[in-house]
Amino acid sequence: MLRVALTLLALNIGLLALEIPRHAGMGPNWLAMEALALTGLFMLVPRRRWSGVLAALLGLAALLLTLMALLDALARLSLSRPLNVYLDYPLITSVYDLAVANLPIPVALAAVAGLTLILAGIALGVTRLLTGLRRDTAGAAWRWLGGALLTAGLAGVISVQTQPIVPRAISPAVTMVTDQAGWAVRTHRESAAFERQLAAGGGAREPLPLRQLEGVDVIVGFIESYGVSAVFDDRYGPVIRPRLIDMEQRLNAAGLHVVTGTLDAPTFGGQSWLAHATTLSGLWVDNQLRYELLLDTERHTLVDDFRATGHHTVVVMPAITQDWPEGRWYGFDAIFEADDMDYEGPPFNWVTMPDQYTWWFFEQSVRQAREDPVFGVLALISSHAPWVPVLPVIERWETIGDGAVFRQWEGIGESPESLWRDHDRVRDHFVLSVDYALNVATGYAERFVAEDTLLVVIGDHQPARLITGPEPSAGVPVHVISGDPALLEPLRARGFTPGVTPAHEQGQAGMDVLIDWFRADYGDVAPSP
Questions:
Q1: Quick one: which of 230, 292, 263 has its CA closest to 87?
Q2: Range in 107-116, 196-205, 380-389 with the lowest mean pLDDT
Q3: Which residues pair with 457 in a beta bridge?
Q4: Can you tell me whether residue 141 is helix, strand or coil?
């Protein structure tokens, strides 16, 4: 009886722990019905080889469920949504790359080894618990108790899925599996609908010259993790709002004009490429499957519109260190990845080079190197996790050169694995990194934006839930800057307000509308349905 009680207790605690990501804690429930069913089942099965195999398979299932719960916690923390295995399995390599870039190899290996040992221990522990209940011969009381537990457990699992009959009782393993199955079916249907939309030409356009932007350099700078929380959250507003005021004053002093709005990003916490694809394609690309389906089609994007206008189209991606076929799909005339940017400074953890160098490289090696107008897309990554170190801004931009000047800060600051032990300090570094990104963008604008320039500074998505808290808005600020106020009038008519501080926490529209706005406002055509 003691073995039965301990087995039931251990299984119950382990199964209830699967709910920790969902409730950000142990949750309100106290009984896992599967614990009753499994304990009762193995009290009834004989001590045979097949029952040992069954116990081992259930131990493996416990390992997989635990791993899914850990990944669910990671998805909720970083992407502000539950795990969807059908969608998220391609992100495993991205998680690996992020870990390798931010952790020393010994630490990363130790973490993997520790996790492996924990999961193996869970599998072995469940197997031993269940096999220990088997009996070659069992008395009537033992069989009666086993049957009662099995019956109650199965009835409870069924009732929990329909109409619960036991208060605060759940079936966490069954719920986890059925949730994943349901999300897989729903995601598959949504992807099939998106595929049909693509096949029917949804969002497809012939390239359209944007006549009112002829001769105008148009630059879109995506600031990593810059969402409305940086402005409206009381933890970050005291840093970012003064920065926005300073930004506006400096732009005004430089004779520039600026309007600001809020748009909804298609993703949270990561997967910036989905925001880029949504902005450039005019289609709502909010998951990896949609992204891959999009790349399998031939479509015209905002890049094609600017090429038709006579612009030299360029993308600058300092975070790309491997082959990037997507750049060729977009059809940019020139693609600058990390190895193409002649950077001689040090990397700073995940950040291959600071934003200030990215802006400087774009200005010197792209804009100043050409006489025809430029359409440029820049991915600015200094505000990407782990948000350490936060560099000072070099006031004399002409000294940046090949970036070797940044070597003076090589190795400064603490390591990511040290910083991330304290989530409050992580939040402090997040807001300082966004402050740095905005400060550098302002420095670029006041030096290099003129009447023949339209600069769009936009957040790619909100940061992870660790930073924003639960249920954040999807909104990101959009600052549009030019020396010619007439270029900003169409956006004012669409609700953008003068100045740099966003008036709205909720998005006025999604990022996918930008291409239609450009075509309608600068190309003199009606937006597509």
A1: 292
A2: 196-205
A3: 221, 479
A4: helix
* Residues 11, 149 contacting (CB under 8 angstroms): no
- For residue 413, give both structure tokens: 């600051």
Closest CA to 223 of 420, 439, 20, 48: 439
Name the token pair of 35: 């614990």
How much is the pLDDT for 244? 96
- The residues pairing with 380 across neighbouring beta strands, listed in sequence order, are 223
Q: Could you count the other beta carbons within 10 Å of the beta carbon of residue 203?
A: 22
Query: In angstroms, rounded to a whole number, what is the distance separating the alpha carbons of residues 462 and 229?
Result: 7
The tokens for 389 are 């170190």
Tell me which CATH homologous superfamily contains domain 211-522. Answer: Alkaline Phosphatase, subunit A (3.40.720.10)
Q: Map out the domains of the chain as residue ranges.
A: 2-188, 211-522
Backbone phi and psi for residue 215, each to the nearest 5 degrees, phi listed first: 80, 0
* Cβ-based neighbour number of residue 298 at 10 Å: 7
Cα–Cα distance for residue pair 481/504, rounded to 1 Å: 18
| Rounded Cα–Cα distance for residues 231 and 148 (Å) | 58
H/E segment holding residue 339? none
16 Cβ neighbours under 8 A, 6+ residues apart: 26, 27, 29, 30, 32, 170, 172
- pLDDT score recorded for residue 381: 94
Give residue-wise pLDDT tens across range 374-411.
999 999 999 998 899 999 999 999 999 999 999 999 98
The answer to whether 114 and 54 have CB atoms below 8 angstroms apart is no
Q: 257-264 and 497-498: which strand pairing?
A: antiparallel
Higher-confidence position of 218 and 466: 218
The pLDDT tens digits of the residues spanning 408-431 come to 999 888 888 888 888 889 999 999
Lowest mean pLDDT among 91-100, 120-129, 295-304, 367-376: 91-100
Query: 262 with 470: CB under 8 angstroms?
Result: no
Q: Which residues contact 68 (CB under 8 A, 6 or more apart)?
A: 83, 85, 176, 180
Classify the C-alpha dihedral 17-19-23-26 as positive or negative. Answer: negative
Among the listed residues 339, 337, 282, 291, the one whose alpha carbon sits nearest the alpha carbon of residue 314: 337
pLDDT tens, position by position, 29-70 = 888 888 889 988 888 888 888 988 999 999 999 999 998 888
User: Structure tokens of 329?
Assistant: 């799909």
458 vs 227: CA distance, rounded Å: 9
Dump pLDDT digits (tens) for 138-168: 778 888 888 888 888 888 888 766 566 667 7
pLDDT on residue 529: 45
3-state secondary structure 161-201: HCCCCCCCEECHHHHHHHHHHHHHHHHHHHHHHHHHHHHCC
